[in-house]
Design goal:
Elements: H1 2-6, H2 14-27, H3 30-47, H4 49-62, H5 67-95, E1 100-104, H6 106-114, E2 119-123, H7 129-135, E3 143-148, H8 153-165, E4 168-173, H9 178-188, E5 192-196, E6 206-211, E7 214-219, H10 221-229, E8 232-242, E9 245-252, H11 263-284
């Protein structure tokens, strides 16, 4: 599958580099890291020209930018991506409480967490979706995020420690599909499943949907789960707005759905609403798109 080839699913740097980052950001301000990122991004872009080319075409073809603006936007996009990785390391190093959040759509999220039923949160590789779990403070339900198992051990250990403190669990995506049964169990217990809905995770089933002036494939699985089990679904995007600040946008995907429709059709409607919500975010925050491959291919 092209998406799987284009994206390996791991954080760069290896165990030693990642451990060093954790030590540094236990004491250093994130803005020092941002400065270093700004200096090193051009060299990173030269080494990953295929990825940079995909983002260049995203700005040229999806936002209609000129050549120079697109080149500058590729640089800024990579800088923001690096800054968000630093934010994650700052959280792993114990500074999650320093980040501030504005919640757009908080009443809907609060109503769902106050209810007995479990529900799904669809995120994306736009903004910093892992930060949403730290920033959406609530003590009623536990959030379980789908994760890729290929990370270095140090990343997995630090991630698990900080997530546990914030009532967040992890469900590793595995080839034997055991994660699907775990997801059903979590929802039956009244908790929350959070997953990125813009990559297919090894499944060929997808909805081809209008998206930013073209057509792109979105995985059918997350929306089929919500439709099949009759669970509510929201889209959630944590978009960076400052050195220590984010805005978390919540969009209701299941409001006024006709639950009498066949599952496939219902799932397709959820997917269409999700794609529209993601497009809205990228119109507002065009620099915060981090699928570094030809998403519309």
């Amino acid at each position: 599958m092209e998406q799987a080839k284009a994206w390996q699913g791991t954080t760069d740097g290896g165990s030693f580099g990642q451990r060093a980052m954790l030590v540094i950001f236990r004491y250093a301000d994130v803005r020092l890291g941002y400065f270093i990122v700004a200096l090193t991004v051009p060299f990173y872009m030269l080494g990953r020209r295929k990825n940079a080319g995909a983002i260049y075409r995203y700005f040229r073809q999806r936002h209609g930018y000129g050549r120079m603006r697109s080149l500058w936007s590729v640089y800024r996009n990579h800088c923001i991506f690096g800054n968000m990785l630093i934010d994650r390391f700052a959280c792993y190093a114990g500074h999650a409480g320093r980040f501030r959040a504005t919640i757009d759509g908080e009443p809907r999220f609060d109503r769902l967490t106050a209810g007995e039923d479990g529900f799904l949160m669809g995120s994306a590789h736009a903004g910093n979706f892992e930060m949403a779990g730290y920033l959406l403070q609530q003590d009623r339900k536990k959030i379980y995020g789908l994760i890729y198992e290929g990370e270095a051990a140090v990343m997995q250990q630090q991630r698990e420690q900080i997530l546990t403190r914030h009532r967040i669990g992890m469900i590793p995506v595995r080839d034997d599909l055991s994660h699907v049964f775990r997801m059903q169990q979590v929802l039956a217990e009244g908790d929350i499943i959070c997953m990125p809905c813009d990559r297919r995770w090894g499944s060929a089933k997808a909805f081809r949907l209008p998206f930013l002036g073209g057509e792109a494939d979105f995985p059918a699985g997350p929306f089929a789960v919500a439709a099949q089990l009759g669970k509510a679904m929201i889209a959630i995007f944590a978009m960076k707005t400052g050195a220590w600040s984010y805005t978390v946008h919540v969009r209701d995907l299941s409001d006024r759905l006709d639950r009498s429709l066949p599952v496939r059709q219902l799932a397709g409607q959820l997917a269409g609403r999700y794609a529209a919500a993601l497009e809205e975010m990228l119109r507002r925050y065009p620099l915060q798109w981090f699928n570094f491959y030809d998403f519309w291919n």
